[in-house]
Amino acid sequence: MPTIALIGNPNSGKTTLFNQLTGTTAHVGNWPGVTVEKKEGTCNVGGEEWTVIDLPGIYSLSPYSPEEKLSRRYILDARPDLIVDVIDATNLERSLYLTTQLSELGVPLLLALNMQDLLKRDGVEIDTEQLSRMTGCPAAEISASKGTGLEKLIGLAKTSVEGHVVPACPLFSNEVEQWLTKIIADDYLHVIPAGRPPRWAAIKLLEDDELFAESMPAPPPAFSAMMAQARASLRKTYGDDAESVIIDQRYQVAERISDACVHAIKQGRKEFNLDTILTNRFAAIPLFILIMAGVFYISIQLVGGLTTEPLEYFFGEWIPIHLGGLLDRWGVIPFLSGLLIDGIIAGVGSVLTFVPQLFVLFLLLSLLEDCGYMARIAFIMDRIMRSLGLSGKSIIPLVIGTGCSVPAIMSSRTIEHQKQRELTVLVTSFIPCGAKMPIFALMIGAFFPDRWYVAPMMYFIGILAVVVTGLLSRRLDKHKEQNAFIMELPRYQVPTLKNTWLQTWERTRGFLIKAGTIILLSSAIIWQMQSYSFTFRAVDPTNSMLATLGKIIAPLFKPLGFGTWQASVALLTGIAAKESIVSTLSVTLAGAPLSSIFTPHAALAYMVFILLASPCIAAISAMSKELGGGKKLVKALAWQTGYAYIAALLFNLLGMLVL
Amino acid sequence: MDGQEPKTETLASLTSGQTARILGIEAPRPLKRRLMDMGLTHGIAVTVLKVAPLGDPMEISLRGYHLCLRRDEAAKVSVERTEGITCQPSR
Q1: Which among A91, A281, A383 has CB closest to B65?
Q2: A4-36: string of b/e by CB count within 10 Å (b at 16+)?
Q3: CA–CA dist A573, A526 (Å, integer)
Q4: Please, which pLDDT band fits residue A333 given cuts at 50, 70 and 90?
Q5: A235 touches chain B (CB under 8 A)
Q6: Tally of domains in chain B
Q7: For B5-34, what is each residue's pLDDT tens digit?
Q8: How far is CA A648 from the centre of its chain?
Q9: Is residue A541 reached through a cis peptide bond, with omega within 30 degrees of 0 on the bond before it?
Q10: Is B64 within 8 Å of A244 when comparing Cβ atoms?
Q11: A with B: how many residue pairs have Cβ under 8 Å apart?
């Protein structure tokens, strides 16, 4: 079964093409670095199943950040049968720079000129035949978002794989070529690892590529001497190091091809540049705050106000009354009807109440991601984020984190600098995710219905925790390393209906699945554990095994004001999924008001603790992956939980004075 | 920055709307490579489009696309101003 790999610059539309080819719904967005992991799917090519691999975008085969390393390693080690070089046709020159590197790998290469629709709008035409002649690769014009040109692409892929046509390598200047010939002729080249073509290896050696050098045994002295001579000679001719000379010459090849193939056919339509407002000197930051506030106002306040009450009535009264009556008439044993109504329906229903709000939140976030605004946020916020020891790119995980921390933590991978990346991973879950929303809504509804500022305050406390953590780690960081922020600003685009729907539905579905699995199971278990004692006798909840367990950890939370067994047990179930806190409280209270176990200031402290303490298990495993597990993970979780404990303690004490 | 002659202009010293040609990059290897990978190679024309609200980073246009980078990085790129010649129109 042949394998084709999709490779190209970040944000060139690889994942959109992947979704079109494989019929899957992998996450796409409009900023460089949406895809940080390798994804696999299958595509039907003339009745045959082909494997399609989607890889993180790269600008060159000399990687800079971890996800770029993954792409390079994959292409070199896995040796796909065909590389589809996905090219943003509106950005041909820079894309061809990568093509000059891909064509040296000795793997058939197919150029997919994406974004034909945008190209037409610019009034530009690309001579595909000429491009094909100059690069030695077949080329197809496609529009991945509209799904056009795909049959041709698949047809060309088939002939490429069957014919195994390897593209022509770009030629460097005579001097560079002479050195390359000498290097290739050297015996040292016999030890290059499998799958690396000699010419590619020779270029990497001349460039002194660290990653490649690591995969080779130490060179003999004669070879090292020759390399030193080569580099000195190139420096004399070109006044720069060998690596820069090669990059320069690759770009010259790319320019030559691009100049010969791109023709302006008419004046492009002049578009209004949204950046005039959105990154405007004065308006940019207020607009960012306004947009984010708008997202939360619409999803939580507006939609929540409309849907919460009827849904609460539906799950809390209508179903229990009708279903309860039905079960009674059928003579179902009390254990089962109790489990179903007081356990499962009370638990799952309390979480499902929030589906409309989350749906709208996910919808709005998906629009923000698709239109191209995320990269602008990074641009306008970089200065602030830097003073916190973070990068402008850290703002993207923080915004995505308002939906769910898991993809947010993963998206931190595009941050090149390791310390900034780890710090971003640590602070991302301080931003309240969608699953924490139900808890806030529940508590605020019960204790602070007239205080509008409590909900925004939660976001503010989360942001403050990010700031405090950032400043502190900056103070503790002795090295104060220099780091860079280099990012492409993509074009704005109108999000497509199909994509927006898919992204929103995919995330909502994830939430629904959780409700149907983890929440359902934990509600059922919690109900049983609170209805029976350790000797499996039906008892009053206060003597149940759940209460016994809860009472063991409850003293820990006494100073925070919520040292009851119900509150403590709910926190524990929150490790599985934060929504479980709501379902557990609803099951354990069994209709009693929240005020029976919380005072208003304890409720406030409870929210603060949940907001800041270590996230759910899914987010913890995402953190573990990004931090490399072990000590760093333990430290991060300890910091989050310790910070949460102190903050909750403060709020409990302050609350006692104020409320 | 370090070791540069005072007369040489850097990308960081340009203001919005100015266009210049790149002469060379003086930076640690990974950074230099990254900047060159992004197309900041010798002789290429770049136009400064705008500076972020808080004074840093800056947005430039080159090779028909838009890139943002911090002043610290821009200060490592030496340029020669080319009045009158403009880059491709911005998007």
Answers
A1: A91
A2: bbbbbbbbbbbbbbbbbbbebbbbbbbbbbbbb
A3: 9
A4: confident
A5: no
A6: 1
A7: 445 699 999 999 999 999 999 999 989 999
A8: 29
A9: no
A10: no
A11: 116
What is the nearest CA distance from B79 to chain A, expressed in angstroms? 16
Cβ neighbours of A281 in B, within 8 Å: 50-51, 53
Of all residues in chain A, the one with the smallest CA distance to B66 is A489
Q: Name the residue among A90, A91, A485 with its Cβ closest to that of B57.
A: A485
Q: Which helix (H) or strand (E) holds B29?
A: helix B29-37
User: Which residue of B63, B69, B77 is the best one to mutate when testing the A interface, meaning the one whose CB has the most A CBs within 10 A?
Assistant: B63
The verdict on B32 touching A (C-beta cutoff 8 Å) is yes
Model pLDDT for residues A461-517, shown as the tens digit of each residue = 999 999 999 999 888 876 666 678 999 999 888 888 888 898 899 888 988 988 888
Render pLDDT for A576-585 as a digit per residue (tens, 0 to 9): 888 889 999 9
Query: For the domain that residue B46 is a member of, what is the CATH number?
Result: 2.30.30.90
Q: Which residues of A touch B66 (CB under 8 A)?
A: 488-489
Is the ipTM reported for this complex over the cut 0.90? no
pTM of the model: 0.87
Give a yes or no: residue B4 inside a domain. no
Q: Is the model's pLDDT at A306 over the cut of 80?
A: yes
Q: Residue A210 above 50 pLDDT?
A: yes
Quick one: pLDDT at residue B80? 93
Query: Does A247 sit within 8 Å of B36, measured CB to CB?
Result: yes
Q: Do A383 and B55 touch (CB under 8 A)?
A: yes
**Domain A3-163: what homologous superfamily?**
P-loop containing nucleotide triphosphate hydrolases (3.40.50.300)
Chain-centroid distance of CA A523 in Å reads 30
Q: In chain A, what are the domain boundaries?
A: 3-163, 285-658
Residue B87 lies in a domain: no
Query: What CA–CA distance (Å, rounded) separates A249 from A270?
Result: 34
Closest CA relative to residue B36, chosen from A248, A417, A12: A248
Q: The tokens of B71 are what?
A: 């002043």
